[in-house]
Design a protein that fits this description.
With about 130 residues, the chain is an alpha/beta fold. The chain is about 35% helix and about 20% strand.
């Protein structure tokens, strides 16, 4: 069992999902599962995700048909299929800083739920909070 599952719900976001998955792969805690939850993805996108999964044994692809409410049911299916009790959500167009999971795991020693601060990358490629 992994110490945490990074759950990435997605629907045909080929232009951003590779960076999202790479940020998950670069976590300082390596004992993680990276679960990509497909919400009615196209055949081309399915092939892209399959290539990502071949590159890293920690990546699992849960390929589900399109669900209502922007895939809400499929995200829940991902939580149920996760190999860990700790779930880290990552949108397919977002990135995690390398110590994100490590920092959250430290905080979870005292609480049941934690959320990180959001930031963005500005026009000069600087991280802004």
């Amino acid at each position: 069992m992994s110490v945490a599952t990074i759950l990435i719900p997605t629907h045909d976001a080929a232009d951003t999902v590779v960076d999202a998955v790479d940020s998950a792969r670069r976590q300082t805690i390596s004992d993680i599962e990276i679960m990509i939850v497909g919400d009615g993805v196209s055949p081309e996108y399915r092939n892209l995700i399959a290539q990502l999964a071949k590159a890293d044994r920690r990546i699992v692809f849960l390929d589900l048909p399109k669900a209502p409410n922007r895939g809400e049911r499929n995200r829940h299916s991902g939580v149920l299929a996760a190999s860990s009790d700790v779930i880290v959500y990552l949108a397919d167009d977002d990135l995690l800083l390398p110590r994100h999971t490590e920092n959250m795991m430290q905080l979870l020693g005292d609480v049941d739920l934690c959320q990180s601060r959001n930031g963005f990358i500005d026009e000069n490629d600087r991280l802004v909070f």
